[in-house]
Amino acid sequence: WKCCGGKVNGLGCCMAGKENNWGQRLCERKINGPDCCMNAKDTAMVSSSLFNAAEFQPLDPTQEPIFPPELLIHQNKLQKQLCFKGERVTWFQPTTLKELVALKAEYPTAKLVVGNTEVGIEMRLKNMLYPVIIAPTWIPEMNAIQHTEEGINFGASCTLSHVEEVLRKAVAHLPSYKTEVFQAVLEQLRWFAGPQIRNVAALGGNIMTASPISDLNPVFMASGSRLTLVSNDGSRTVRMDETFFTGYRKTILKPEEVLLSVEIPFSRKKSHLHWRNWGKDSQELHPI
To answer: What is the reported pLDDT for 69?
Structure first.
């Protein structure tokens, strides 16, 4: 199959065309006839105007094709802060923590976006406008994972899929009495959207959205997870408890502060954590 998916799309049209008239209109050739794309030779689907096949090296069957190194060239260069300005929105992508807190001090109402699974919906479906958006995905400290004496510290930009992977390994290798909080988080992640969303949604974004129906925040509050907050004035650590959320989608963070990391603690001996999802069906489950 070609990387553009053209043949795949053509195949879908032809297969649908067997039972639907619209398939006949979508297929560029006659469905199932001698010129149909399902019957065409593969070479007919390849354009030779973009390359010279004679320049190709013979394929060594003992080696796996590598990812084109030209596409990874940015990894060998120092990243530079990006800024895109549109008619209504300005988008920043800082590369260091210093740049991030400076931007947040300059634009205290700016939205931080990693996976865009919440802000994107608000802008597209709720007609909400955020004039300044900051994407902290390039900042090393916000993607770091550290194993401490108290638990596991996750950078706020870590995706939920990455968090899930790390916690599963911890549950498999640590004594069960130390991983009850981890198991509770994993159970909540089992109900959290689908893999596509978890692959981009960030741990910090889930907390800072401050949704009253969050799947993870009740577990973090019950376990006393510790949050590290940073700003131009320095850093501070707070425990995520009943005082963290001050109202509907509001937290104790100051406008210029940024959530840097989340420490999910080990559970202790003779302590137990119980969780339950309450609701009529899987579409209305709320954790308690």
So the answer is: 73
pTM for the whole thing? 0.72
Q: What is the pLDDT of residue 58?
A: 81
The closest alpha carbon to 104, from 137, 132, 143, 140, belongs to: 132
CA distance 223 to 213: 18
Residues 6+ apart with CB under 8 A from 136: 93, 94, 100, 112, 114, 142, 156, 157, 258
The CA-atom distances, in angstroms, between 152 and each of 60, 202, 227, 275, 277 are: 44, 16, 12, 20, 24
Q: Which residues contact 186 (CB under 8 A, 6 or more apart)?
A: 164, 167, 168, 171
Is residue 49 very low, low, confident or very high in pLDDT (cuts 50, 70, 90)? low
Q: What is the 3-state secondary structure (H, E, C) of the chain?
A: CCCCCHHHHHHHHHHHHCCCHHHHHHCCCCCCCCCCCCCCCHHHHCCCCCCCHHHCCCCCCCCCCCCCHHHHHHHHCCCCCEEEECCCCEEEECCCHHHHHHHHHHCCCCEECCCCCCHHHHHHHCCCCCCEEECCCCCHHHCCEEECCCEEEEECCCEHHHHHHHHHHHHHHCCHHHCHHHHHHHHHHHCCCCHHHHCCCEHHHHHHCCCCCCCCHHHHHHHCCEEEEEECCEEEEEECCCCCEEECCEECCCCCCEEEEEEEECCCCCCCCCCCEECCCCCCCEEC
pLDDT digits over 168-217, tens only?
A: 999 999 999 999 999 999 999 998 889 999 999 999 999 999 998 888 99
